[in-house]
Amino acid sequence: MRTFIATLGLLIYLPVMANENHLHAAISALQNPHSVLIDVRTADEFAVSALPGAEQIDFEQIASRISALAPDKDTLIVLYCRSGRRSGIAEDRLRALGYSNLINGGGYEELKVALQSQD
Length: 119
What we know:
Elements: H1 2-30, E1 36-39, H2 43-48, E2 55-56, H3 62-69, E3 77-81, H4 85-96, E4 102-107, H5 108-118
Helix pairs in contact: 1-5
């Protein structure tokens, strides 16, 4: 029983820690004036709310539109969406194109709160 509880606790704790690491990395990256912040949600979602300085590219269009925003494949890029799932997909697509300096910032609300706490 103790093993079960310990395993369950670990399964809950690890994703939380991973999310905190991504948020910390995203916040650090956004301190770099040359970093690019990309919101991969839909245009409608972006119109309702977005992080300051974010560019909108739908995750389904990221491969065809990224070169206009970041032609240098070493550009520091932070991606976010509603929950982190679409930004993870966008990250995978960009890596397949040769982009190497990518951070999945996760979900909009969590990243927004983390950035506000830095002010």
